[in-house]
Amino acid sequence: MVAAIQAYPWWLGGTGRPVTRFVEGVPGLVAKDDAEGVFAAALPDGRALAIKILDGSLRPVPAVVAAALRQLGVDAPALGEIGRVDVLGHGVPVGRVGAAGYASSA
């Protein structure tokens, strides 16, 4: 299944969706998103992450996932672009969604 996800990431989530862009932009990453702000990913060395946005919003997911991957030591140029989530006002960027920190319940 990993080989299929990496070979055809757009079948996983669709063209241009954040999950697809993460799989395409981070070498070896396998990821899946779901409704209600859920996202899980694994790196080839066994490190993994899972997030859940409490209010179910999908908008912050790319910013939070990019920040979490950076916390895991991933240094992929694509993280900057994928993790940039602009807030638009009349079609013009007026702000940005970002991850303020990283918390662990472990």
Put the structure in a nutshell:
This protein is an alpha+beta fold and 106 residues long. The chain has helices at 2-7, 9-13, 18-25, 61-71, 78-82, and strands at residues 30-34, 38-42, 48-52, 85-89, 92-97. The chain has one domain.
Give an overview of the whole structure.
InterPro entries: Asparaginase_II. This protein is an alpha+beta fold. It has one domain (2-97). It is 33% helix and 25% strand. The protein contains 5 helices and 5 strands; from the N terminus they run αααβββααββ. The protein has helices at residues 2-7, 9-13, 18-25, 61-71, 78-82; strands at residues 30-34, 38-42, 48-52, 85-89, 92-97. It has a 3-stranded antiparallel beta sheet. Strands 4-5 form a two-stranded antiparallel ribbon. A hairpin with a 2-residue loop joins strand 4 (85-89) and strand 5. The longest helix is centred in the middle third of the chain and has 11 residues, at 61-71. The protein is globular, with a radius of gyration of 14 Å. The mean pLDDT is 91.
Radius of gyration: 14 Å
Integer count of domains:
1
Which band does the percent of strand residues land in? 15-25%
Topology order in helix (H) and strand (E) letters:
HHHEEEHHEE
Give the biggest beta sheet. 3 strands, antiparallel
Task: Specify the number of helices.
Answer: 5
Strand order of the largest sheet: 1-2-3
Unreliable runs, pLDDT <50, ≥5 residues?
Answer: none
For the terminal residues, how far apart are their CA atoms?
29 Å
Shape: globular
Can you give the mean pLDDT? 91
Measured as a percent range, the helix fraction is 25-40%
Count of individual beta strands: 5
User: Pairing-aware structural class of the strands and helices?
Assistant: alpha+beta
